[in-house]
Amino acid sequence: MHGPKNSILKRWHALTITPARARRIWRHPYWREQGGYRDINCAHCPRFEAGRVSCGIAFGTPLRKCAASAIEAHLNDCAGMQVLEIGFGRWMLPRNLVRRSGGSWTGIDPGQPPENQAQLGRGGHGQAADIPFADDTFDMVFGIQTLEHWGQIHGGRQPSEYADCMAEVRRVMKPDGRVYLDSPQHFHGHEMFIMGDVARIRAVFDNAGWQDIVVERWRREYAPLEKYPPSAKVQREWPTEISSYSDAEVEEVRDKASVWLLTISARNPR
Question: What is the CATH code of the structural domain delimited by 4-267?
Fold first, then answer.
């Protein structure tokens, strides 16, 4: 999944997908309401190719295919918006869609050198707990597979409090601005993401006063596609992170879980 061909396909997709095409693919409701959540099961996803019994995203792991699909669905219309990406990394797909749909993209990432100061319209150093921009700057803030790392301790990280991070996100957002965040479940990061504890994750947003919260569960039901169990490599991180769940609960996830993608979007009401 990480060879040269996959890298080429990933870059090609980021270069060629247009906002108009993404809007066509995702123009109809692509979810099924279930228990207050939106479920996007593989068999009913617009990217599912029934004839080939495969995902139409040609690159990446099952998790990366879901992330690409969710990005297409959520970031295809940013006309006139100031948009901040938290933890932008090297994947160009989200920023390309923002820019091509008429938005202005800015990025912050703790992996950037501190001397590379973040400025509007470009990427630079920064993190969710300390966003280097003024109040009421952005119409949208988003992060792709970054939320689970904010409170992570593995590898000697200095974890941030989720309440502090969400307060920072709201501070730099304009009234009625939107936040969009996704995160893998049963993979890595803070323990609530490893365990797939959606109620606890959602409470981060409820407790911070966000409104119009929408939670989507991508690939939680993966049939007829393959199961995607958490790898032995990521499982080695789990003992460092997990302290609030019983051994039996952890073993059940270890033995039975398939990795899936959670997305949360919400409105800043202030």
Answer: 3.40.50.150
